[in-house]
Amino acid sequence: MKELDKDGMKGLVLDLRGNPGGLLDQAVNIASMFVPDGKVVVQEENKAGEKSAITADSSVNDGYKVKVPTTILVDNGSASASEILAAAARESGDIKIVGTKSFGKGTVQTAKTMEDGSTIKLTVAKWLTPNGTWINKKGITPDKVISMPDYATATIPSNSKKYTINDFGDDVLTIEELLKALDYNVGDVDGLYTIDTAYAVQRFQRDNNLEETGVMTGKTTDKLVELVQKHLKENDPQLKAAMNMVK
Q: For each of the chain's 247 residues, which pLDDT tens digit applies?
């Protein structure tokens, strides 16, 4: 972060999508870069209903604070410590959140190794946002809700399988969706590998110097995944929205 400041950083997007969290103390340390010292980062509530607050302390980061406009990205893969960070940044740091609702894990857990070598995980408390909200099984709703295209979370077909005319199923549906995302005409997107699908695959193979078989398999599948990932990175609607809010 200090290096980015030296390089002239004007704004920051903190991407917590797909981040299942980690250690509570590290979430607090990171939040302390965005939350004024002394303001609440997270509250813990024990089984007796007693609450204790953990506040921001920049001394853990040599006094460093982020001073540029910031937004945070979350999705349903953002859980636990990443939710603590996002909630603290919004409620105590006035930072906006973009994306889709987070996972909703509001428990504090610890692991204990037993004498036989096994491990038991214990839930020892609830954690609450600075405002006292328990987000467990509810998640955090962003200030600006923007969904990713369906194909972004699709299960990628195996490159070891062959898909050809008259094949049917979810994998074929994904292939059609991915080809359509790259502007190839596959006809109806219905999970049926038709002549239209085969023609689209042939055109894709021709454009990428692959053997024109019309069959989706091997190098063709790999190339399709590669180009879709590149396309998604360049056309990420959530990231674009977050960047515009920073500007």
A: 999 999 999 999 999 999 998 889 999 999 999 999 999 999 999 999 999 999 999 999 999 999 999 999 999 999 999 999 999 999 999 999 999 999 999 999 888 999 999 999 999 999 999 999 999 999 999 999 999 998 888 888 999 999 999 999 999 999 999 999 999 999 999 999 999 999 999 999 999 999 999 999 999 999 999 999 999 999 999 999 999 999 8
Q: Encoding tokens for residue 139? A: 């998640």
On the question of a common fold for 2-147 and 150-234, the answer reads no
- Annotated catalytic residue 176: no
- Residue in the block written with tokens 């049917």: 168
Walk across the sheet containing 119-128 and list its strands: 51-55, 40-45, 119-128, 107-113
Cβ 165 vs Cβ 86: under 8 Å: no
Cβ–Cβ < 8 Å for 100, 243: no
Fold of 150-234: Muramoyl-pentapeptide Carboxypeptidase; domain 1 (1.10.101)
Q: Is 80 a catalytic residue?
A: yes
Specify whether the CB–CB gap between 15 and 233 falls below 8 A.
Answer: no
Exactly one of 92, 102, 105, 126 is catalytic; which is it?
A: 105
Domain 2-147 has CATH 3.40.50.1260: no
DSSP-assigned beta bridge partners for residue 73: 15, 98
By DSSP bridging, strand 40-45 and strand 12-15 are unpaired
Is 91 in the active site?
yes
